[in-house]
Design a protein that fits this description.
single chain
Length: about 110
């Protein structure tokens, strides 16, 4: 079974990137210790005008693991006053299409 993608897009005001990264790292350390955590990739926009300056793609073994990880300890971390300036939009997704450069060159892809 493939890992479950959890996508979280963050709005971070210009000049507050370091503060966001410090707070995000604290929460990420908490989440990495949770059962079912597979891994993550945090992306930073190269464009300062991007609405979502940071996008995190986390992977979980199951939907239930992801949901369980967003527990009271998680809520306590993200409800700290320092998070007030950072909004996020998140959801659990399902992979419906995948590709690579090599599969694009194959006539049978």
């Amino acid at each position: 079974m493939s890992p479950i993608p959890f996508v979280n897009c963050f709005e971070v005001p210009a000049g507050q990137e370091d503060e966001f990264l410090a707070r995000w790292t604290e929460v990420n350390d908490y989440m990495r210790a949770k059962p079912g955590y597979v891994g993550h990739r945090l992306h930073r926009s190269l464009s300062p005008e991007a609405r979502f300056r940071f996008v995190n793609l986390a992977q979980w073994d199951t939907v239930e693991d992801c949901q369980a990880a967003h527990d009271e300890g998680f809520r306590r971390l993200v409800s700290q006053p320092g998070w007030a300036g950072f909004t996020s939009t998140q959801a659990i997704y399902q992979v419906v299409h995948e590709g690579t450069a090599e599969s694009a060159r194959s006539p049978h892809a």
